[in-house]
Amino acid sequence: MVHEADPDDGNSDVVPGVTERVGNTDPASLSAEQAFQEYVMPEIDVLGRVALSLTRHSADAEDLVQDTLVRAWKAIERFDGRYPRAWLLTIMRNTNLNRVRKRLPDLERNPDEGMSVLETAEPHMSAEDEVVDPVFDARVVAALDGLPDRFRQVVEMVDVDGLTYAEAAEVLDVPVGTIMSRLHRARRRVRDELLADDEVGEQ
Amino acid sequence: MRFRGFLSRKGSELSCPEVGRLLQQYLDESVAGPLALDEPTSAKVSGHLDDCRRCGLEIETYESIRSATERSGGGLSEGALARLKDFGERLASDGEPGQA
After folding, report:
1. Cβ–Cβ of B72/A137 closer than 8 Å?
2. ipTM for this model
3. Is residue A53 a contact partner of residue A168, using CB atoms and an 8 Å limit?
C-alpha cells in the first residue's frame, strides 16, 4: 500500500496506548472491500458512541458517522492496518471539524440544545442495575450535564464510550496529559457537587 | 478505623493526600496507557486503600460515579446503527474507493 501525504486520513500518527487490532491478517493481501469489512465495520458501534459524545444529537451523530465512513472508504487503500480505531477516530475528528466550520453561521439554530441527557439517553441495562439507585444516577447525570463541554466530552469518551486516554486525545486533538487532567477535574467536580447536595440535604 | 497513612508515614507507605492525588489514575489503570501508575506505586495505593477507611470510601465514591456515568450512555439507537452498517456495506460493495 502506498502512503501519500494526506492530513485528513489520519495515517500519520500512531499513539502509544491506543488499542491495536488483534489479528494476523496481512493488510496488503486484502482488497479494499475486505479491508473495509475487516477494519472499519467492526468499529461502527464505537464510532456511533463517540459521535454522540461529540455532537450530542443523534441525527448529527449519524451524519457524522456516515461522513466518516465515506472518508474511511476513500482512504482505505492507504491504511496500513495498524490501530484501526485510532485511524478512524482521527478521520472522525477531522470530519467533525469540517462540519463545525461549515455550520458556524447557524450554530444557534437548535432550540432544543439544552435537552437533558435524561430525556435523550436510552436505558442501558446490566445485571447490576437491580441494586442501582436511580436517584444517584440522575444526580450524576445532572452534574455531568452541567460541566463545560470540554470536560463532559472527556468523561463520556473514557467512562461511557470506553476509549483509552490516547484514543480520546486523538479525537479531541489534545495531548494525552490534557485528557487525564480534564477527566480527573471533571470527576472531582461531579464528586464535589454530589457531596455539596448531601450537605444541603442534611441541614 | 486506621489512619496510619495519614498520621505516620513509615518507609515506603503513602500518605492519604498522596493517595488522594493518585486515586483516579489508579482507577483508570486499564485506559491510561503510558500514564498508568507503575506497578510498585499501584501496589502501594492498593495496600493503603485496604487499610484506610477514609481513602477506601473516597475510591468507592469515584467508582460509583463512574458506574453511574457508564449506565447513562446509550449510544445511537439500534435503528441508526443498522442504517450505518447498511450504509457501510453498500459503500464497500459498490465500486472503487476512489470513486466513493
Report:
1. yes
2. 0.74
3. no
Tell me the three cell numbers of residue B64: 460509583
Chain A positions touching B20 (Cβ under 8 A) are none
CA A62 to CA A78: how far, in whole Å?
A: 25
Neighbours of B75 (CB within 10 A): 23
C-alpha cell at position A57: 444529537
User: What is the pTM assigned to this prediction?
Assistant: 0.65
Q: What is the mean pLDDT of residues A152-163?
A: 91
Cα–Cα distance, B84 to A65 (Å, whole number): 7
Distance CA A124, CA A129 (A): 9
C-alpha cell at B77: 439507537
- Chain A contact for B96, CB < 8 A? yes
Best CA proximity match to A167, nearest among A58, A20, A3, A6: A20
| Interface A:B, Cβ pairs < 8 A | 152
* Yes or no, beta carbons of A160 and B72 under 8 Å apart: yes
Centroid of chain to Cα A49: 6
